[in-house]
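FAQ: What does a ligand-bound record look like?

Like this one, built around FE2/S2 (inorganic) cluster:
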Amino acid sequence: MQKILVSTTVNGETCEFACEPDTSLLDALRTELRLTGSKEGCGSGDCGACTISLDGEMVCSCLVLAAEAQGRTIGTVEGIAEGSALHPLQTRFLEHAALQCGFCTPGFLVAAKSLLEKNPDPTETEIRYWLAGNLCRCTGYDKIIRAVQHAAADLRQERTGA
Amino acid sequence: MNDMSGKPQYRVVGTRPVRPDGIDKVTGKAVFSADHFVAGMIYGAILRSPHAHARIRSIDTSKAAALPGVKAVVTGADFPALKSMEVDLGEGGGDIVDMSVNCMARDKVFYDGHAVAAVAATSASIAAEALELITVDYEVLPHVTDLAAAMADDAPVLHARMRTKGLDTPSDKPTNVSMRFVMEKGDVAAGLARAKVVARGSFSSAPVHQGYLEPQACTVAYNSDGQVQIWASSQGAFMIRTVTAQVLNLPIADIRVTPLEIGGGFGGKTVIYLEPVAVLLSKKSGRPVRLAMSRSDVFRATGPAPGTICDVAIGCDENGIITGAEVTFSGSAGAFPGSGTHPAAVCSLAPYKIPDYRIVGHDVVTNMACTAAYRSPGAPPIIFAVESIVDELAGKLGMDPIDLRLRNAIQEGDPSPSGVPFGPIGLKEMLEAAKVHPHWSEPLEANQGRGIAAGYWPNFGGQSTASVSLTDDGTVIVTTGSPDIGGSRASMAMMAAEVIGLPYDSVRATVADTSSIGYSMLTGGSRTTFATGKAVVEATEKVVDGLKARAASIWGVDAGAVEWAGGEARCTAQDKEGTLSVRELCGKGGPISAEATVNPPDPGPGIAVQIVDVEVDPDTGTVTVLRVTALQDVGRAIHPSYVEGQMQGGVVQGIGWALNEGYVFNAKGQLDNAGFLDYRIPVASDLPMISTVMIEVPWPSHPFGVKGVGEAPICPPMGAVANAVSAATGVRMHHLPMSPDRILTEVAAAQ
Ligand code: FES
Ligand code: FES
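The answer part, i.e. the structure of the complex:
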């Protein structure tokens, strides 16, 4: 099969990869770019472990073709921290033990970041519905929701307080 | 270390530090099973049976083998013939022949999704293409996926040689009932005859899946000298080593298994599926091979928990004192025996003092993937049935369901199911706490109901090895062989820090590969913080002894004249004084290290009580969970956040089991809901916060009092939710999952 050359921006850096026409963006990120932070829990859009941002919108990268990434801007879990400074979501996930196995964590972080960018002060219900496409089998979600609530407060304070 | 109340005061135990693997996991750096790349690696793929039961007449792989890019093809013919032998893996286990056939079918396939052939190719797409070129000639056989149907006299028989073990009168008739297990005490007929009130009912539950988010995957490199490297996530690297060696007749030491981060297991990763296949593919191709499951492979071909049928009768006198109980149940084991019959029987009535009882369990094979352990394997659906009947009994007596349970609750000194008296066990404490909890008295509205249930799981001990070594600069490295499935590296580091008297930050905890640490049983049975924790404490104590001896020699005093406190040696000899820190001691004469292996036979029991409020929509039958309070006797919480996490996670898995989850087979015996869209696990918007109440009744045989906490929390939820639904609707529920249609049907039938 003839490969397609794709150039794209991932976590602020331009990069190129070659992919087959039916390769998913998730596979390309993981295999071609070795960004294995995004996980495959289902490959069918049902678990959210592969959540990334594509031109600022949250998507399941398993449902996007790699070739569609041409010229677009991608954000993955690997790009959430600024250098070695963790994002408040990451800090709060750690403090609140919002991960047990951690397999769902990258997807939750990307999805929660996207929520807080759109809605800096979400209610518990809004958080629960926004994250309803991200499955976690370990935590029962309680600590994840709390971590997001605290991170939202941190970010609001950063914005007003600084 | 004790305060006035006698409760030990700890510096580190009971605090909530960030876990050692935390940053890796929030930044995407943690390496899970499908994240490991090896130079020259190629991609494997497995062809799976579309039939629930069929004889394989022939397999033609020639076209696949000829496809450019295909480097190896494997079928059942490549596997060595084995002699039947039971393998005990701690939680689960079974016959090695069954385990081998489960990895790759030989003359028959036993379930939709059973592996029949495998290929390895230079790309995943070539491997997928090659699978389509394999022709399998099947003779389709009658199948049975339903548990009751599998027990019928005229059921299609899966294994012609199977005879029921444990029958009073042995039968020579081929059967699907692999075993009958009886546990009894006293005279159940007399016990029930003494009762003033008897409640009885028949219950059933569909098979459910553990639903770990990470599909099984491994990478294997077979070298021409016979040395095998396996990188995989599982609940036991040593388990992978043992079973792979036995299935392939390889020397155990030739296999080195490196545990990668594990994306959930819940018991489902206590068995292997891919590793022996990948070893053969790697051996044939001469290349490292990655083999990974898809989500549908996981549902179709990896162990669900059994479906069950269960009849329960419990009687009590007019004061609510239980006089007798009878439990008869069956579990669908899937393709090969092992549905957790024994633990289900042990747990079913364990929370209550019952003078006369009889428990009879059956293990039944069906044309479904072979079941694997799932959190308290075997027990939860049987506990659901028993707790429903206990609730029914309270209703008949007009008694508060907590009071009824309190009157019959076991306590220290009462005989446990094994006959050995219970040690300290906090069931009464939990029930008392539940009774005064604001949740129990909060008013309910129309169509709402509240339920309570208890649940017991005995927990495991088992063999564990830990090594503790100090570095020149006085930091501590703790190494174990127990895969960290939910934060155990943090608790190991905390226990070591507590013992040596250093801050948590001075301890690093890692999980080693199978060639770098002594044998450890798999992570399962809620045993790791208990048993591996004990090994860590013992190894750390040995290190402290070494430090004291070195201090004694530096000071020229007897070892008895050195005291260890606050992370340093103190000289207590009359004429001398002084202190030496870990760092100073390590700097003089090199780092100290020690190893300890334990095999504690006496784990503390797991016991939990949960209160659940639901609202049932009378028009649609939809259940909304409004409020949950989960109580558990945790012995001692080393890292309370991760203990709470176990409780909350167990509750929510149980809510899924209660309300949505269940295998659905079509008329051909194929799994119809092999994906997260149709097999719906709870999502964030389904749930409220899960409140936790940790009751600490320390367990004497663990240095800090730990009782395993991972499994007990999945025992009460189905009973608690069912009792709440019954309270809301006025109708007893008999089947899991309590899907909306099922609830409407049961309500209509009762009217
Ligand atoms: S892997 Fe993309 S949604 Fe599950
Ligand atoms: S922490 Fe394991 S799936 Fe969420």
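Follow-up question: can I read anything off the structure? Yes, for example: The longest helix of chain B spans residues 528-555.
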